Amino acid sequence: VETSSFAPSPATGGQDEFFGLREYRPDDNPRWIHWRRSATRRTPVVREMAKPLPEMLYVMLDTHTRDLSELGLARRERMIRFAATLIDRAFVRGYKVGLAFARRLDAAVYPAEMGRGHRRDLLDALADVETQQDLPLDRAISLLPRGMFHQAQVVLVTPDDRKLPDEPLRAVRRACRHLTVLDSEQLDRIFEDNVHPSQEEAS
What is the pLDDT of residues 176-185, one digit of tens each? Predict the structure, then answer.
């Protein structure tokens, strides 16, 4: 999330990225006149600027599990907390954020958007995620809308990447800008998760 750069937008009217040249209009700012090009024309031309598109991040949560032991359920909760942390920090950095995960019969998809209301919707959805044994990841990926990962960074959080099917992952990798897969062992190395600080202080 921290290493990405903005992409120029086809929507004009900003003051950030150069888009092209066009004829001067009365309401244009004179500072944007391109004097070198205007010298050879009857009508001045101005630099058309564009606003940058915000980066897009999708978090995919692999909810399929057959490990219903205490340790397996603890790993699942840790995955969800990491996903929530990643989503929260991406919003703070101005990303458009989406979420996808499998339910028992279908895939829940939240398109990448911005805003506090959308952030709340994503975190509420994570709070309601259920462990499911019916819909494996490859089937869930097949239910996702085509093109939803276009120009997006995708982070897949899974209990064990050794059990992931190759072809669905290749399909996601082809559809997005970059795919990162994080399993439980990797989260143990990179994610500082202090769930019950009060209990630690008491001990």
Answer: 989 999 988 8
